[in-house]
Amino acid sequence: MKPYFQNKTIKTVIILIIMFVFIFGLNVHAELEVGAITGKVLSTDIVANINNKPIPSYNYNGYTVIIVKDLKSYGFEVNWNPIERKVEVIRNTDKEITGKEINTSAHLEPGTKLFNVLHTDIITYIDNQRVDSFNIDGHTVIYFNALSDHGKLEWNQNARMASLYLKDPVNAESNDKELDQNENKHASRQATSTPVTRQKTTIDPDERFLHQGDYHPSMIPDDVKIGLYFGDAAVSSIELESGGGFQAGVLESGNFSHIMSLEGKNRLTLSKDTNYYVAPQTNFQNLSQVNSEINKLTDLTEYSLIYAGLDNGWNIYAGPFESLQQAEKASDELSVANSEKWSVIRPNQEHILVSLSNTPIMTYHTEQPLYFAAAGVDYEESIISIGSKKFRGAATAFRQKNSDLTIVNLVPTEKYLYGVVPREMPHSWPEEALKAQAVAARGFAVASMNKYSDYGFNLCSTVNSQVYGGYDAEQSRTNQAVDLTRGQVITYNGHLAIPYYHSSSGGHTEDSENIWTNTVPYIRGVKDEYSLNSPHSQWERELKKTEIETILFDNNIRVGELKNLYIAEVSSNGRVLSFIVEGSYGTEELIKQESRSLFGLRSSWFNVEYEADTKTYYFIGQGFGHGIGMSQYGAKGMAEEGYRYTDILKHYFTGVRIH
User: Of 380, 409, 427, which residue is a domain's last?
Assistant: First the structure.
């Protein structure tokens, strides 16, 4: 056995000590000598304001920091205890905010080095809560964001301005009282000290399509379109099956509307239509006219006649024909027999062919797609096979430009959730956990309805939306959880909340801005002992030095021979904010989840150890997933202890309502 593992007990104790230090926010430089250089201060073009009055600020390794004693001019008491080497900062709502004059005469290029940052033994507290502090040019400084509990922080990228708006003392009291009433009494909230200037990561979610405005029940649509095959996964054809035949319909105001019965036709194939046809010049307004005309033409020609759904009505096509010559011949014959000009319809990318046992029965236009559901039942009760799997509702196919077929499942929204909840959470878990998952899944679906609008549908069936298994995935217990919470979503201050969730927090969830970019008021890190017994509470991944070098090279991180890996900064909740890769050619900083993504780790809550003999790095961590919002294993643990689904959701989402 390798020497590294000879004493597992000692190793475990060391790991627990390190994690204890991270969780309780102790200074990560505690082992350094006082006065040791820990960073550098650069000139910055960022302006910091408190209640619209500028406060002097610096850039410390990319973060905005302020001098503690300057807060005396901004509504705070600043007290120095030389015996305990402690600075105490207390908000004093009676103090007038006068601000401080800032020297603007020196216009240095942003990024110019000003001072070194020195390690200090001075401890700084804000309202009795310890925060990170440093020594710059003989002054004790803190992150500007450490003041976030005292008001609302805003970042204006265009103005390069970080602003803090202090709470009005009267409104603050009523706001805090309301929050206490809404917040689950068992939830433990811990603020972060992540700087507001922290940059966006390369793996942030695309929020352009997320709905975050005022909530109204009408925002939950009756039906939703789910992309099953599209993009690189598009198919040339798809087979549909229904034991009782099919009905065809179109969407009217977003809902399925029956137009045609195809009873007795138990198996249909939708495919790209690459055929030639001929058609009369007159289009028809409805299918009754088409049926009447087909009956007349049947006695006049031996050519096959099929329905043609156009983007502006209906027509009759004769065919299909494999060549232009065949189509032109048929056009001449039908024009003579019917005393009306018939024209050749050439193949194009906008036609979809519907066949029964390899016999074409209709073609339709991508701009007005037909949807196929089971015959003899209301659309809401339809169950059909799409490819090899069963789904509720209806199916259609259409073509994107220069692509194969996009296959879409149209399904009632609540029954879409039937196929989501058991794929996101085991159906054997407690009912209250399943109900919490159902509410979260419904809210996430509603918030994301426009994500795939450019593709012609609302959501996809993969983790890029939520995993959707259709009818084959359904379980009676998860269906019941959806039914018992029908129409319920999570809101914050009247706005639709986006209820992110993950597998296991590892013991503490995270603030939104420590994982992605935006500060979301209802996604605050909470203590989560309910996740500690999950299979992912503790984990370890080992990578050889050569493996890491290959990973770095494959991801265009060209730092040369690997010299060192280390964590430069963690959040107050324990997760990695800054991870440094040192090589013979230079260094690279990975921020937030980038290290997790690059090295294939289960979470961004980890520590790193190195074994020189084997040139192996060991990533030792806890939790599984991004760590924000609801922990699914935590929901299970809370349900097992008797909490209701509303308690679970209010524990993981701060100050929200469920309705």
Answer: 380
Same domain, 190 and 157: no
Cα–Cα distance between 492 and 513 in angstroms, integer?
17
Q: Give the span between the Cα atoms of 141 and 265, in whole angstroms.
A: 76
Contact assessment for residue 452 and residue 499, using Cβ atoms and an 8 Å cutoff: no
Strands 113-118 and 37-42: antiparallel
Residue 448 pLDDT > 50: yes
Collapsing DSSP states into helix, strand and coil, what is residue 24?
A: coil
List the beta bridge partners of residue 88: 79, 125
The rounded distance, in Å, linking the Cα atoms of 65 and 61 is 10
Shared domain for 306 and 363, answered yes or no, is yes
Distance CA 58, CA 96 (A): 24
Q: Does residue 192 share a domain with residue 141?
A: no
- Answering whether pTM is above 0.85, one says no
Query: Considering just the CA atoms, what is the radius of gyration of the chain in Å?
Result: 32
Instruction: Count other Cβ atoms within 10 Å, centred on residue 69.
Output: 15
Q: What percent of the chain has pLDDT over 70?
A: 85
pLDDT above 90: percentage of residues in the chain: 53
**Distance separating alpha carbons of residues 174 and 151, to the nearest angstrom:** 14
Instruction: Of 290, 407, 311, 284, give the one whose Cα is nearest residue 368.
Output: 311
Which tops the pLDDT comparison, 66 or 381? 381
pLDDT in tens, 532-555: 989 989 999 999 999 999 999 999
Q: Are both 45 and 158 inside the same structural domain?
A: yes
Domain count, the chain: 3
Q: Please, is 82 exposed, middle or buried when counting C-beta atoms within 10 Å of its C-beta (0-12, 13-18, 19+)?
A: exposed
Domain boundary among 112, 139, 165: 165
Q: Within 13 A of 520's CA, how many CA atoms are on the CB side? A: 28
Cα–Cα distance measured from residue 520 to residue 608, given in angstroms and rounded to the nearest whole number: 29
Report the distance separating Cα 96 and Cα 580, nearest Å. 43
User: Which two structure tokens, joined as six digits, stand for 432?
Assistant: 């209250």
What's the mean pLDDT in 290-310?
Answer: 83
**Together in a domain, 195 and 297:** no
